[in-house]
């Protein structure tokens, strides 16, 4: 059982219904295309296929069946949330998750201080502490 079934690309995304992100910062990038399913949108975002930026989220317009790939998410500065009944927002969990999995080498979240308030050290740095 379960053999031959492919894992859905949508599992890598956190869905928020009836929400769209509006970029206030004009340097943030968006690309749109007509696609029939959210699964197709998710695959392209995960692979960054045909995109000139790293896709962090996408919004799917259920009415026009248009996918909007975003170089930002709801935690990005220069972005505001907008209630919109036509859209569902899908954000890559890696970028909105505030937990570290394993050793944390692939962490892309927003936490940059320790529990006690000390600034985090870059993974590739030996300063101020050795690994």
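^ structure tokens above, recovered residues below v
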């Amino acid at each position: 059982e379960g053999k031959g079934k492919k894992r859905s690309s949508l599992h890598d995304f956190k869905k928020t219904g009836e929400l769209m992100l509006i970029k206030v910062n004009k340097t943030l990038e968006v690309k749109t295309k007509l696609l029939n399913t959210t699964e197709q949108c998710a695959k392209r975002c995960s692979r960054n296929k045909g995109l000139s930026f790293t896709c962090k989220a996408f919004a799917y317009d259920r009415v026009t069946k248009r996918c909007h790939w975003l170089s930002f998410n709801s935690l990005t500065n220069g972005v505001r949330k907008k209630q919109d009944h036509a859209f569902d927002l899908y954000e890559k969990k890696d970028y909105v998750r505030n937990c570290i999995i394993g050793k944390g080498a692939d962490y892309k979240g927003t936490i940059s201080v320790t529990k006690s308030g000390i600034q985090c050290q870059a993974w590739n740095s030996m300063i101020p502490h050795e690994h």
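The radius of gyration is 17 Å.
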